[in-house]
Amino acid sequence: MKPLTILLAAPRGFCAGVDRAIQIVEEALSKWGAPVYVRHEIVHNQHVVSRLEHMGAVFVEELDECPQDRPVVFSAHGVPKSVPAAAEARDMIYVDATCPLVSKVHVEAERHHRAGREIVLIGHAGHPEVIGTMGQLPDGGMHLIETVEDVQTFTPKDPDNLAFVTQTTLSVDDTAEIVEALQKRFPAISAPHKEDICYATTNRQDAVKVMAERADLFLVIGAETSSNSKRLVEVAKRAGSQEAKLVASAENIDWAWFDGVETLGLTAGASAPEDLVQGLIAACRARFEITVEEVTTATESVVFKLPRVLEQA
Q1: pLDDT of residue 312
Q2: Same-fold call for 3-14+199-296 versus 16-99+305-311
Q3: DSSP of 249-294, one letter per residue?
Q4: Range 16-99+305-311: architecture per CATH
Q5: In sequence order, what DSSP letters do the residues of 9-75 get, joined into one string?
């Protein structure tokens, strides 16, 4: 068998916010029994969603698809304020699984809004987290900026009374460029006290940067809908990997990609479970003489508490 070195990123896979969100659905099922409804995929990974469906979770896109007499969980990405308000109006039991780091951005945006500032959100249009964050304020209270070009065409009401927040799962480098452009055009713009891009996104990107140059091929395990996973592919390419691809699992690999590959870089997005990583390594082991080298760039110990309604369970 041909030799293959696998550089395995650490940290990789689940972050504390994803762990907490999945646990919330499991605990809700344990407390109230099936079915428990979940508004939007709890995290962006079909393997996770399928496992929870087998346990009795029902995934829907909108609250009006949920019966009034069953609990509903809001996804880790966060929801507009109108969603919990609608749940309360219908007297529903609901549990908010919004990642605490996303909630921090929501609080920040509201603080700026109360102070009378116009707010810029750096993020990707249509992403659930962006929809949730923009939905914290009245219409027109927040402007979405996706690129450096958007910064040049943005016309605020008062250039001296601006603030910015960001989606938590962006490319650290791309965001830095947009922030730089904003601060150059609007020197008085208020920045977050602490970076909005979450620790897990940053750590996973840093690990890829360290490994990428050594990799002939870089595989990122994650879903097409996962923003942080797609950013990891971009980071790998930019940091020097000859080729980088997003795969949902080992089943999605085209083994022709491995022609001429001696070193494989491997990581997983923040919503991809570790068993998918181990499955991919096993698939490689069946075809190559593999050596696995774990590349550790950070150690994560963050744990988020469950909502009080479930702690009492």
Answers
A1: 62
A2: no
A3: SGGG--GGGGTT--EEEEEE-TTS-HHHHHHHHHHHHTTSEEEEEE
A4: 3-Layer(aba) Sandwich (3.40)
A5: EES-S--HHHHHHHHHHHHHHHHH-S-EEEES-SSS-HHHHHHHHHHTEEEESSGGGS-TTS-EEE-
- Indicate the pairing of strand 57-60 with strand 36-39: parallel
Q: What is the chain's mean pLDDT, rounded?
A: 96
Q: Under CATH, which number does the domain 3-14+199-296 receive?
A: 3.40.1010.20
Domain definitions of the chain by residue range: 3-14+199-296, 16-99+305-311, 101-185
Q: Which residues contact 47 (CB under 8 A, 6 or more apart)?
A: 248, 249, 272, 273, 276
- Which amino acid is located at 5 in the chain? T
Place 304 in a pLDDT band, splitting at 50, 70 and 90.
very high
Active site residues: 129
First to last CA, the chain: 53
Q: Which pair of tokens denotes residue 257?
A: 């990609």
Q: Which CATH class is domain 101-185?
A: alpha beta
Whole-prediction pTM = 0.93
CA angle (274, 194, 39) in 5-degree steps? 50
- Position 173 confidence tier, pLDDT thresholds 50, 70, 90: very high
pLDDT at residue 282, rounded to an integer: 98
The residue written with tokens 């750096």 in the block is 122
Residue 15 has a pLDDT of 95
* Two tokens, residue 197: 């891009």
Query: Would you say residue 313 has pLDDT above 60?
Result: no
pLDDT tens digits, 70-111: 999 999 999 999 999 999 999 999 999 999 999 999 999 999
**Encoded tokens for 77:** 């990405």
